[in-house]
Amino acid sequence: MRTNISVSLRYYAAWLRGQGAVALDGLMEDAATAEIARVQIWQWLRHRVIDRRTVERVLDEEAPRSGPSTRGRPSTTFARSSSGTR
Each residue of 28-55: pLDDT tens digit? Predict the structure, then answer.
């Protein structure tokens, strides 16, 4: 999960700087990689493999490491629902 969050944040930071694909950890990553990572985390939340607090904690730990464009993020990046698993 930490890798999914880290790669997604770093890709989005690069995308905001105008890069469509970026080398991360020796691999070329793009929007598809970030989307796969996001959906995998969503599935883990939905099927209760991980809990929301863990995801938010790791997100808060990884955001400062991912570059200046990920700092000051909203309280959560994941969509909220009444069930808390969306």
Answer: 999 999 999 999 999 999 999 999 999 9
Which 8-state DSSP code applies to residue 50? Answer: S
CA distance linking residue 15 with residue 7, whole number of Å? 12
List the domains of the chain with CATH numbers. 2-70 (1.20.1220.12)
**Predicted TM-score (pTM) of this structure:** 0.74
The span from the CA of 60 to the CA of 71, in Å, is: 9
Structure-block tokens of residue 8? 């997604």
> Which residue's structure tokens are 């955001």?
63
Using alpha carbons, select from 26, 85, 28 the residue that is nearest to residue 55: 85
Distance CA 18, CA 39 (A): 23
Give me the torsion for CA of 68, 43, 52, 47, rounded to 10°.
Answer: -170
